[in-house]
Design goal:
6 strands, alpha/beta, six-stranded mixed beta sheet, 30% helix, single chain, 4 helices
Length: 143
């Protein structure tokens, strides 16, 4: 019985990690390309610094970035970013998925989306690294 369990766990550890960042879906590439400033909307229940990681990733793309609640979003930014992060627990909390939505600040139209998802078997990904990968999948292509 113990040998069977050991074989099963050994097999599972050899499986590829089913974690991926989906290629960014750019709906309006011209607006994404021309964006020079962004605002990351911090949800009321935020507690894991995702907005800070997204802010840093956007700054790495050359944008001027600020963050805060939706009701404090400045009128002068080009785009704003909303996100949904899902966490789960397995020995420690880890990022299960991240959906990012880039919207036009003038009219609220969706400009682009990016996504990270973790399948089975999972790893314990760097939330900062995954935020960077998702933002890069959106902003690196059209620039």
């Amino acid at each position: 019985m113990q040998k069977n369990l050991l074989l099963i766990f050994s097999f599972i550890s050899l499986l590829p990690n089913c974690s991926f960042v989906k290629e960014g879906n750019i709906i309006q590439p011209a607006v994404i390309k021309s964006a020079r400033s962004a605002y990351v909307v911090k949800p009321e229940d935020a507690g894991r610094d995702i907005e800070k990681y997204l802010e840093a990733a956007l700054a790495n793309q050359g944008l001027r970035v600020t963050s805060g609640p939706l009701e404090q979003k400045p009128k002068q930014v080009d785009v704003y970013v909303e996100y949904v992060d899902r966490w789960t627990w397995d020995v420690a909390m880890y990022l299960k998925s991240l959906d990012v939505y880039v919207k036009n600040n003038r009219n609220g139209e969706l400009l682009a989306t990016g996504n990270f998802h973790q399948g089975f078997p999972h790893s314990f990904p760097s939330p900062s690294g995954k935020c960077t990968e998702v933002i890069d999948s959106i902003f690196s292509k059209p620039r």
